[in-house]
Design a protein that fits this description.
By secondary structure, the protein is an alpha/beta fold. It contains 11 helices and 7 strands. Helix 2 packs across helix 3, helix 9 crosses helix 11 and helix 10 crosses helix 11.
Length: 279
Amino acid sequence: MTDPLDRIAAALERLAPAPMPAPDFAAEAFVWHTGPDRLEPVARVSRVDIGLLVGVNRARDTLLENTRHFAAGLPANNALLWGARGMGKSSLVKAVHAAVRAEGHDLKIVELSREDLPSVQRLLAHLRAAPHRFLLFCDDLSFSHDDQHYKSLKAVLDGGIEGRPENVLFYATSNRRHLMPRDMIENERSTAINPSEAVEEKVSLSDRFGLWLGFHPCGQDDYLDMIRGYCAAHGVNVPEERLHAEAIEWQATRGGRSGRVAWQFFCDLAAREGVRLRA
């Protein structure tokens, strides 16, 4: 007669998900999924050429140099790209990855969503064992008042007892410099017995990034230069006076200027001119 404990153990084993097979790292980019765990290869990364990113020269040069160091096996810092919406934070990460690969480095990029941060230790175990170097990228990273996911992020930034894998570098984008809303920071300070300690754990999370790269709203000249760059890259030819007038009208209807607004105007302009966008 079968032991009841053996039957229970066999049933639990059947319910448990199968271990993730060893990943095939032939692709240059991957997206991490859970349930079950898997690294999904990306056949074609959605990105723009680094030369088309206007008005972010300092951030571009700093991130590019940091990534080159990492790809060459030299020390490098985790980076937080924070600031205004639509100013090219995530575009810069993907463009820098492409630029460094074009220089001959076999650098991979893995996108991790904020919701999957609790699984990051399992992901790092797979990346640590691989003979490649990886940019681990989390887009639009932020935390609410009762969000505990930030604790999982420390595994990436500090690495715990094992340390961060030598072949993994973490880049994140956020609209918030301290990764949590300012009103929540102030609220915890005002209600805590010891205000200085109340938010230290969450606020200090951003201090664990070696690089802070700020992105600010663009001026009109940069906005127009972005559009001119897109027109040149995709072969859209319109008179300068018309381009200027329509671009200004477009940004007025959107209530502001940004790289995203510039791209949206250009897409509308290209469609009206009957021009298909190049890959």
